[in-house]
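User: Second chain of the day. Same drill as before.
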Amino acid sequence: MTTTATQDRPGPESRPDRARTPGAALAVLPDVLRAALAWTDAHRADFALPGDVLEPHTQVNATLKPLGELAQLGSTIRRTTAPGTPEHERAGDLVTYAWEQVAAGDLLLELLRAEPFAAYPYEIYAAFAGYGLRHEGFEALARPLTATRAWAHTEQHANRQLGLVNSERRVGVVTHTDAGAVLSRTWLGGLSEPWMFEGPSGYALTHTVFHLTDWGRMPDRVPEKIDGYLRTWLPAWADGCLESGQWDLTGELLAVAASLPGPAPEPLLDAVWPVLADVQHPTGCVPETGPPAQDTAAPDPYPFIDCYHSTLVTAFAAALSLRSLRSPGQTDGSAPGRERRTA
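Assistant: Same format as last time:
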């Protein structure tokens, strides 16, 4: 596996294939989830959109992307946690904040008008729509756009196309292509040789599972062969990520493990979660990569851009893992969207 070496990596005792204390994941997960959400809530202003967000020079990856991730992962955490708990309420507050930032959908409509050829406004909107927040004007414009030949034939990587299919499912329209056919073209769907796993293929793999399962909500969408393949190789991949300090990718792999149908992979969760819990700073944030900050009293040990995603992913993976360990097989009962293949 190709990874980036770092200093102060966890020792051999942290390897998921060498050490496991039964129940270790459940012992740390509630605190990990609470702390990660608390940090995110305390830094919600850092997700705020700038006044010039609609201008052509604005960097989407530094503005709309973080806010869209806040909406997507926050909505999943709320759906996954028990009503009335602080985690459930805080996640809901964060989604409400994100919806306010896009002016209850008005800003996304302006983006769609300005860039009708772009998929990202639709995908951000779908994160809200899947949560029940809708905008009639946006959907009225999106319907004819998503029926075009250009939309159906946008050239993109297979896992990205699977994400667009899932967005269409969430909005409730007929999908532009068959999800199964797209899945077969992904790195994961091809059951690629496991020793070819590295950073880019790792993220492609995790997002394939997220789009396939609607961010962990529908584990039964994972085919049996892929389920078996992931259960076999996730421990080795997580091991490599721990050794090289790839904390963000570790969190995504844990979320994948908790999105599988059937029993939770408890040995993997029990071995890896305590390591990631140790990496988490007392403030709740988690670095994307590299040695954890040694100053435990620092209020902001990392720049926002270097830890917001890994912290959100940690909260997301923790919520899914708690569900998987406490209530195996539980989903929110949502039905999949109608699908068809377009010519």
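The chain has a mean pLDDT of 91.

User: Great, on to the next one.
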